[in-house]
Structure formats: C-alpha cells, structure tokens
Amino acid sequence: MLDEKHEEILEALWSTGERKEYSIQAISKRCSVDFTDSDLSDLEDQGLINRKDDNIEFTEKGKKIAQMLIRRHRLAETLFSSILMLKQSDMEEIACKIEHSLLPEVEESICTLLGHPGVCPDGKPIPKGKCCKTGLKVVDSMVVGLNELNAGERGKISYIKPVTHSNFHQLISFGLHPGVIVSVHRKTPTLCIKFENTELAIDEEVAKSIYVLKLQNDI
Fold this sequence. Notes:
By secondary structure, the chain is α+β, with helices and mostly antiparallel strands. The chain is built from 9 helices and 8 strands. The protein has helices at 4-18, 24-30, 37-45, 60-82, 88-98, 104-113, 130-134, 165-174, 204-208, and strands spanning 49-52, 55-58, 143-145, 154-160, 181-186, 192-195, 198-201, 210-215. A 6-stranded antiparallel sheet has the order 3-8-4-5-6-7. Strands 1-2 form a two-stranded antiparallel ribbon. Helix 1 (4-18) crosses helix 2 and helix 4 (60-82) crosses helix 5. It is elongated and about 65 Å long. The relative contact order is 0.10.
C-alpha cells in the first residue's frame, strides 16, 4: 500500500522522466517531499522502480501507478484553473492534496466535464484515461439517492436530507451518517441495505433522503 510520500516520489520520477532526467538528484529537486534511500528501497521492494547506479527507472507496474497519479494531479489543476479560477499557488496546493484521494469515477467525471483536455494549464500533457478513449460526452450524476442504487451496488453517504428531525436522528442512531459505505442487498419486496456489520430494511421514502456517492465494486 503506497502512502502519500511514496506517491510524491513516483510523481517526481515521472516529471523528471519527461525531461529525460533519471538521476536521484534530479528527482529529489522535483519532489515536493524529502526522501531517503530507505524510501527508494521500499518502492523497489514493491516492484515499482529499478535502480542502477545513480539512476532510477519505472517498472511497468510503477509506470502505470505514476501515470494515474499524474493524470489526477493535472486534471485537478485544470479544473481549479479553468472552472474555479483559482490562482496558481492555490491551484497547485489543492491539486497536490486531492490527487491522493480522488476516486476513479470522479476522475473520469472531471475529465469528461472538461472535455478530455490534452494538457494542463502550464502545458504539460495529461495522460489519457478510459473515458478519453471511449469519447464519453455525458457526466453521470455521482451523488444520488440511496433508492437509485441497484441491488449489489454501493455508495458512500454524502449527506442526509430527512423530512423531519426525528427521522434524521433515527437514521443517525442506526449508524447511517456521512462517510458510511452502504451496499444495497435487495430492492424487493423491501429495500434492504448492508453497512458495517448491520443489515437493515428501510422505507423507500427514507432511502430517498439519504444521498450517496456511487462507488465501483472494486473499490
């Protein structure tokens, strides 16, 4: 499992590689965090990089992960620059934070919303994703009512919009609150959901008041 520090090293290696530079010194200059020989050994042990003398190169596995990280970072920069109109310093700082937690489906929605951009604001290429190759034009709504999920689908609760306060407190007492991942076990004859170690049958109207971020089953 990669932590943010290791991900930053992989990003720096990608950036220096675009300039045909592969030395540890060059990577260190481009990296936003300080790293040690032990950190490089960790990446090597995970099969993500190869070291030869003072140079570092990606393995195929490492290249795929770095490409994903760079894509998310540069898409975030493009979103914040072109849509939210953030200044350069704020854009870079927020993009660095969001790239580590951006879900794949959200990444594709951002890319589709932006029209599958080829470069980020400073002209660096944005690696293509699946949505670019399929030419996806429409962004699916990622946050939907729990009642809209099909059996077997999952979602992370974003917010609850209950009809009454008592209804809200009842849901909270059940353990249904923002951040909880819920899966739909079945929809008929009664909507039945599972979350954490609980299975619960809920009314359709109640399910409509629970808004979730749809998740892919392999997440």
